[in-house]
Specification:
The protein is α+β, with helices and mostly antiparallel strands and 477 residues long. The chain contains 16 helices and four strands. The protein has three domains: 146 residues, no CATH class; 132 residues, no CATH class; 129 residues, no CATH class.
């Protein structure tokens, strides 16, 4: 399920009210889809955090504010698309932060709720979720109070073993309390063995060793987590882990732990963001069949790690491709309608053809001929060039041999061609009335050049066309 809303702008002739209605309907559905996905993600945490639904509420609030502020005034403004893009970008950012938090939540609570896991989470809570933040802080305070209560009870009973266990479980940021507990443990040990200097020295050594061992255990936890999300970083730090096994110096052990912890913190942030961005791209463009887009998405998903900059760049390029395709489809449809209108007007003026498939052939770029009202030997030859967006029309007469024509015959042909020229001018005016205007018209008058074709060539062309039709018919059978 994608964490982001993807879309592309297209051209529409619909009324502004209908465009606004459709736009709001689309964005509302997309935002609801994402909100529903977040609802699914938080189900597993509903028992643990009563305010976890606040993650959904802030998305719903943003959705409601966007829909109410998206008005006709915004739609008709020159900054309409920029305004919507910024709103959707903010919404996507909010969604990404929420999903990132939920990823952190899954990772940190994998082994259950603890004081350390809650403290790791508190800095990741989205700033808009005040209630959830307070709840986590209250849980932290509650766990700290329970821990301090156990410590106080152990102090009263002078249970050194229990105090040491509590000391091991205390988070690092409770420095003052941890130091007090450490001093208390040491005091009790010294009090118990005051008369034995040798044992006192041994206790100090054990205490030191315990701290080193504590650091080793902490390093082990961070390293295991690092190995799950970034094996490459884990391999790089493997020599340090091996070294730590034999380290007895506390300072060196602490330095190694700090390096492993820093690497893990950085790696988990990059891993979570990379996985979220990949999921967005995978589901956002899953139904798009454009080869170029599919290749771009496939290349993006193959990367081990991706950045937000790469994610934004990919979305921008895909939106440009989708918009370009929409424009090309609209232009093609408009040109097809114009060609059909030209043919329709010619038929109304007495020009005709028996072939029912002429429109398909014409739009396919083939040269087609239309019969004229001036006799069976006079035809119009049409060719539509989709790439250049133009139409070529020639007035042609079929003869046995052009050399056998008299000057009278040629003068008569020019006179007939001029009648076609008048029909052509009329055709241009009719097209203008329907909103079609031709640019860069290149016109050759009959006196400049008259096109003759031999009847033999025409018969051969008809024969080839019939053979082609017969071949297609046989293939279909």
């Amino acid at each position: 399920m994608s964490s982001a809303i993807s879309y592309s702008w297209s051209i529409s002739d619909s009324p502004p009210e209908e465009i606004l209605k459709n736009n709001k309907k689309y964005f509302e559905a997309e935002m609801n889809r994402l909100i529903d996905h977040v609802k699914e993600l938080i189900k597993k945490h509903l028992r643990s955090f009563k305010n976890i639904k606040e993650l959904v509420k802030i998305l719903e609030a943003y959705r409601d504010e966007f829909l109410s502020s998206y008005t006709l005034e915004i739609l008709n403004s020159p900054n309409h698309t920029k305004w919507v893009d910024e709103k959707m970008s903010d919404f996507n950012d909010l969604a990404l932060r929420i999903k990132s938090f939920l990823k952190f939540l899954d990772i940190e609570l994998e082994s259950g709720i603890s004081l350390n896991s809650l403290k790791s989470l508190i800095s990741k809570v989205p700033k808009e979720c005040a209630a959830l933040r307070r709840e986590i802080e209250e849980k932290i305070d509650e766990l700290i109070n329970k821990l301090l209560k156990k410590i106080e009870e152990a102090r009263k009973s002078k249970d050194i073993q229990q105090l040491e266990e509590l000391y091991q479980n205390m988070p690092e940021d409770l420095k003052e309390e941890k130091q007090k507990l450490s001093n208390e443990i040491l005091r009790l040990k010294l009090e118990k063995q005051r008369t034995k200097q040798k044992k006192d020295e041994k206790l100090k050594e054990e205490d030191y060793d315990n701290k080193v061992e504590e650091l080793k255990q902490k390093a082990k936890v961070f390293y295991e987590k690092l190995n799950k999300i970034s094996p490459q970083d884990a391999i790089r730090l493997k020599p340090l882990v091996e070294e730590l096994k034999n380290v007895k110096d506390k300072s060196r052990a602490s330095a190694i732990v700090s390096e492993i912890k820093y690497t893990y913190t950085k790696a988990v942030q990059e891993h979570v963001m990379s996985e979220v961005l990949k999921e967005d791209v995978k589901y956002a463009y899953a139904d798009i069949e454009i080869p170029k887009v599919k290749d771009m998405v496939r290349e993006f998903l193959r990367k081990e790690k991706v950045s937000r900059e790469e994610y934004d760049s990919l979305n921008r390029k895909i939106r440009e491709i989708l918009l370009k395709e929409q424009i090309e489809k609209a232009n093609k449809k408009r040109m097809e309608e114009e060609v059909k209108l030209i043919y329709k007007k010619l038929r109304e003026m007495g020009y005709y053809i028996v072939d029912e498939g002429i429109m398909e052939r014409l739009l396919a770029g083939e040269i087609v001929e239309i019969n004229t009202p001036f006799g069976e030997d006079y035809v119009l030859r049409l060719k539509f060039d989709e790439k250049e967006k133009n139409m070529t029309i020639k007035f042609v007469r079929y003869v046995e041999d052009e050399k056998g024509l008299s000057e009278y015959d040629k003068a008569k042909d020019i006179s007939i061609a001029k009648r076609w020229c008048k029909d052509y001018d009329k055709l241009i005016e009719l097209l203008k009335e329907n909103g079609i205007f031709f640019e860069n018209i290149r016109r050759i008058e009959p006196e400049q050049r008259f096109y003759y074709e031999r009847k033999k060539a025409r018969k051969e062309g008809i024969k080839k066309k019939d053979e082609k039709k017969e071949g297609i018919f046989r293939k279909q059978i």
